[in-house]
Amino acid sequence: MLFANSALAVAVATAAAVSHVAAACQAINSVMTIVLENQDTSTILADSYMGSTLVKKGYLLNNFYGVTHPSQPNYIAMISGSRNLCLLDFDCKIGANSIVDLLEQKGKTWKSYQESYPGNCFTGTSSGTYRRKHNPFMSFDNIRGNPTRCANIVNSDQLSRDAAAGKLPNYIFYTPDMNNDGHDTSASYASNWLKTFLEPKLVDPAYANVLFHVVFDESETYFGPNHIYSILLGKGIKGVGLVDNAHYDHYSFLATLEGIFDLGNLGKHDKDAVRIPLSC
């Protein structure tokens, strides 16, 4: 059913292949990345909500891949264009730049919304159902050691207040807790959480100019291609119900984010990554 319009899928893939250079996308005010955990694409496409309902509403990136295993290096790659020698799930301390540096240089705002996060620049490995390994911003020395920047890492409760005040940042990184992201539960649990979290936002005027990216960090199967579910919804997508079969990974979305806000690049894997085509 996903490939009923194969000609359109091919056309989209062809467009993606030539989308390396893209101008700033002024129609998109905010980009929200929502990261779920550790599921194979086949499992998610079999889910009634993510595999059917969302596919009909969004732009499915059907050939999207994590860059490694385990979880944390994928999160680091999402915001910095490299694993930066962070290879495992132990606390990392990285003396490099990230998307934060590019955003701030352009006067753009950002926040990392973390479920169950204790606040106050908590640097511990865990607290309840919060895990630092799923909060990549905390691994960067120039964020963790900077009180002003670290204040942009907040508990997820702040999101509703920011939306109500009309103060959604330009870049939103949202991490569900260890239950809601499916890590300690299941794909169906994560799907039910996502439906409750996302559906109201798709019709809320406060989020009218937001591009949503729902993505998994890595596949459940370690010894394989690391094929993961990834879908764009909301402002700026090429079309509703489209399937893009071009090859993308976490670096591709970082490069796309850089293009949306005309940020330049970090000179790492993001520099040469193929951007995802948008309609701006």
UniProtKB/TrEMBL annotation:
A Gene Ontology biological process term: phospholipid catabolic process
InterPro entries per the UniProt record, alphabetical: Alkaline_phosphatase_core_sf (IPR017850), Phosphoesterase (IPR007312)
Record's keyword terms, sorted: Hydrolase, Signal
GO molecular function annotations of the record: hydrolase activity, acting on ester bonds
Transmembrane intervals: none
Signal sequence coordinates: 1-23
A family per Pfam: Phosphoesterase
Name of this protein: Acid phosphatase
Species assigned in the record: Chytriomyces confervae
